[in-house]
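User: Structure please.
Assistant: Input sequence and predicted structure:
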Amino acid sequence: MPLRVAASLAVAVGLAAFVAWWFEWPLERAIYLAPALVLGAGIVAGVGVLLARSLLESLRASRNPRLVVWLWVAVIAVIAIL
């Protein structure tokens, strides 16, 4: 349990330091916003895992996997543009 707490703390501080560097904020502002940053990063990671699993399932069930890959690339490109 203490190892998980230490790892979670390290990830949160690392994420706050990265955001502070990226947006050129003071570190204490990013640490103050750390709960929102961790929640946002978790949501983005969860959506990424969900999309990856659905892509793999689509590839397994499809008779034309190249078409599926191209459609997924198009969907990801549209999401990135938006």
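The CA atoms of residues 29 and 43 lie 21 Å apart.
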